[in-house]
Design brief:
Blueprint (H helix, E strand, L loop, with lengths): L4 E6 L5 H14 L3 E5 L3 H6 L2 E4 L26 H13 L4 E6 L1 H14 L3 E5 L15 H22 L2 E6 L6 H9 L4 E3 L7 H13 L5 E6 L5 H12 L3 E5 L11 H19 L5 E6 L2 E6 H4 L8 H9 L2
Parallel strand pairs: 1-2, 1-4, 4-5, 5-10, 6-8, 6-9, 7-8
Antiparallel strand pairs: 2-3, 10-11
Helix pairs in contact: 1-9, 5-6, 6-11, 7-8
The structure holds 6-O-phosphono-beta-D-fructofuranose.
């Protein structure tokens, strides 16, 4: 049976709107209708939907967030919620779904495909860049650039006042954002979930540096490993130097997507529609040597190992 109508579900991060646009316009180009599911999997459970056409995705390519809105849908984790979601799919005559989001969204997509035989393609979009076998998720590049811009501003004060700053970045259990921001921002130290750290050793380095005239330190802390506020207290107690902490938080998830993320959104979006129309299901879009490819959703939601040691060594070498 040919695919005539598909649904889109999203989480939020920079580049999601550009992805919605790419999916809608690619589908319309192939004569396929599109229904936007509002508020993520909650909208699928509650039949909260909105038809999308070429015009409804005009002027959104540069906007952060998601025009479809999103929410955490704990009900979808239970069978009852999944059955309600299935009813919405049937009621709206959806022949397939495209799910755009991070680990939780892709896990939901896998449940629908695996347990209920719904044709589903996932598009990886999260600032965390923690999707297994996906080199780049939509939103991660923007998050790094937003965090870097903030860090550059913090450096102005750190240098002027000769202070130690601890800058906490997001990323769930993945140190991707922290490592990139620390290297690009010329930081002295980075603390990530993938690597053990020794706070006493860091304090020794700071004290030694201080003795040699180095008085500004910026330490990037990944939220998945430690709290900047806790480390700030310990460092100031041990070194007797003035410290400050900054939590960058949700600013990293918003804002206009970078060109990199918009291009990724266009490529992933069109490829996902093509895959669905070609009867592929339970798959996640990825890149292999910059070529678009598909991997099983089951693989995509497994834990991702990222390269840490070469980045860490370079950060320390350039300090
Ligand atoms: O997964 C994206 C992310 O921004 C993580 O980096 C962060 O830990 C989490 O979401 C924050 O979630 P919430 O917006 O629900 O507080």
């Amino acid at each position: 049976m040919a695919i005539k109508k598909i649904g889109i579900i999203t989480r939020d991060c920079a580049g999601i709107n550009a992805t919605i646009r790419a999916v809608v316009r690619s589908a319309v180009h192939c004569g396929v209708g599109v229904l936007g599911i509002k508020r993520g999997f909650s909208g699928l459970i509650e039949n909260d939907v909105q038809p999308l056409d070429r015009c409804s995705v005009s002027g959104i390519v540069n906007h952060g967030g998601t025009i479809l809105k999103t929410a955490r849908a704990t009900e979808f984790k239970r069978k009852q919620g999944q059955i309600k979601a299935l009813r919405t799919i049937q009621k709206n005559a959806l022949d397939g779904l495209i799910v755009i989001g991070g680990n939780g969204s892709l896990a939901g997509a896998h449940t629908l495909a695996d347990k209920y035989s719904v044709p589903v393609i996932g598009i990886p979009a999260t600032i965390d860049n923690d999707i297994n076998q996906v080199p780049m998720t939509i939103g991660a590049d923007t998050a790094v650039n937003v965090a870097l811009e903030a860090l550059d501003k913090i450096r102005d004060t750190a240098t002027s006042l000769e202070r130690i700053f601890l800058v906490e970045v997001m990323g769930r259990a993945c140190g991707y954002i922290a490592l990139r921001v620390a290297l690009a921002g010329g930081c002295e130290e980075v603390i990530v979930p993938e690597k053990q750290f020794d706070i006493k050793k860091i304090c020794k380095e700071i004290t030694k540096g201080y003795g040699q005239g180095k008085i500004t330190w910026i330490i990037v802390v990944a939220e998945g490993k430690a709290r900047a506020a806790d480390l700030s207290k310990i460092i100031s107690k041990i070194t007797k130097l003035e410290t400050r902490e900054v939590v960058l938080g949700h600013i990293q998830r918003g804002g206009a997507p970078t060109a990199f993320d918009r291009i990724l959104a266009a490529r992933y979006g069109q490829f996902a529609v093509n895959a669905l129309l070609n009867k592929k299901t339970d798959k996640c879009v990825t890149l292999k040597n910059d070529n678009l490819a598909l991997i099983p959703l089951k693989t995509a939601i497994e834990k991702k190992d990222i390269e840490v040691s070469s980045y860490y060594k370079l950060i320390k070498l350039l300090t």
